[in-house]
Write a structure and sequence with these properties.
Among the domains are: 51 residues; 209 residues, P-loop containing nucleotide triphosphate hydrolases (Rossmann fold), CATH 3.40.50; 79 residues. 49% of the residues lie in helices and 18% in strands. It has 21 helices and 18 strands. A 6-stranded mixed beta sheet has the order 5-6-7-3-8-9, sandwiched between helices. Helix 6 packs antiparallel against helix 7, helix 10 runs antiparallel to helix 11 and helix 19 runs antiparallel to helix 21.
Length: 637
Amino acid sequence: MLLNASGIVKHYGVTPILEGVSLQINERDRIGLVGVNGAGKSTFLRILAGELFPDNGSVSKPRELRIGYLAQNSGLEGHATLQEAMNSAFGPLLEQERELRELERRMADPAEQADSTRYEALLVQYADRNDRFREAGGFEMNNRIRSVLHGMGFGDFDPNTAVSALSGGQRTRLALARLLVVQPELLLLDEPTNHLDIDTLTWLEQYLRTYAGAMVIVSHDRYFLDATVTSIVEIERHAATRYTGNYSRFMDLKAADFAQAVKLYEQQRKEIQRMEDFVQRNIARATTTRRAQSRRNALERIERLEKPGHLRQASFSFTTERRTGKDVLQVSEASAAPNETMSPLFRNVSFDVKRGERVALLGPNGIGKTTLLRALVGNLALQAGTIRWGTGVMLGYYDQEQRGLNPANTVLEEVWSEYKMLPEAEIRTVLGNFLFSGEDVRKTVGSLSGGEKARVALSKLMLRKANVLVLDEPTNHLDLWSREVLEAALEEYDGTLLFVSHDRYFLNRLADRIVELAPDGATHFLGNYDEMVSKKKELEEWQAAANAEAASSIPAPASDYEAEKQAKRDERARQRKREQAEADIHRLETEIAAIEEEMATPEVAVDFVKLKEKQAQIEERQAALETAYAAWEALME
């Protein structure tokens, strides 16, 4: 066990945030922490990191445990360069390196070499310090920094770039990169996927899959959670429930638990009704009054189940007033930049959109996706090319920066000012569907959270009844459940969709065509995100096969041919062993989590003999897990 949080209670004023939340974190645990916005996920993570004290409860951990904590939007500050910021993560190692350089300087000094006894002692000291430096990973330090910087999107940056010159999103990415190279035993990551494009997300997933430490991740990226975690802890109604498996498995288990709870509630309700009817019919009869009294006493002793219920969620749908023509949009040879003084971010981008299509625009950060959307809706002029909208088009635009919201307006004023002909009652009903009820509608827009502003913008978009929706990162700031509701509403929408998103779960569910932007044009893919990835892989394999075929046209010596065949056989064998080790690791981690859940049940928790048996089972599997990890790491090397 690395860390144990027990009975954590936290209130802000009179508002309860956490009520008796407990969590045990073991070595190599991969935990996803989920819940609606405001459930207390970030608060709980801060308490685990030691940055916030609970009102009640305790957090116990070994003194030497190294915890790496990334808060939301916690970018690096200061005047250091990019390289200096990364090097500073290795403070003790840098000091050891300086000592080694000093020893090397002394060893090269003829005066030191003249005294054989002193020189011999110097050699022994150098060998000892060199061994310690190597064991601490000193010789891998620069390679690790370069690898992580490249993976996090800083590969093309000058190492002497000042941190202060980076954008807020880039500083947050750099903070995450610095955390990853340190490799603490426990990573606590609060929304680590913010500000990451899809290529960087993919790299981070692969990195975390092979990470040797434990991690707790707060994220609204369902695709990311599916790829990285093996258990989910849901904070709901101030309490926490743990589920084994990734996010998709959690959704299945939660649905099954809810169905079972409803079934038990209905069964108890019917049984209570039956007993109450018996008492009412028989209490006044002399021959049956005793039995009726017994039933009444039994009724009083029944511990009544609460009616299962979901947390209140946003509820809305998008409708259209009229249809567009068949040809909705034609973009030809477009080039654009955020302002006239800048060079174009992209050139020669062309694509068409037909009625009813759901087209996603993808590309790395900074390629100009938002710039293109702003040009399409008329908020920005193209530097070259043309945009032609079809007949009957009524646009609805969702801006991820929420530039169209007036921070001085109340929520009610913000929506009503754009739809003055609608009665106040109808506006309030719509806002109620977006979880703004009672006095919530009197809040100023400027005081709202990111998620609340997103819901205000979506309520205005819904009332517009546009037949073409242009959406820029519509799932940003929305919690997991609000994303599910938005996706369901857009699936039922009968208009045309053109959107930008880094949410691969959202892309898979909604996109039927993808336009991938590049500096010199665009590539088109039919299907959703996973189908695009599969197509790219096929193209890479085809290209590799073509290259290999071209190379094979040059005759090779027989000995080289046999060596190549043997190398391929060895690699296939290693791959099979790696896959088996990964399967063993997944199975053992799942079994350990299941046993831990059994130990937490009331019937086992009070039975010392059963607890001892379960602990022995866990220790046996943990030993096997260590062996499997060792085999896997050896194969990866």
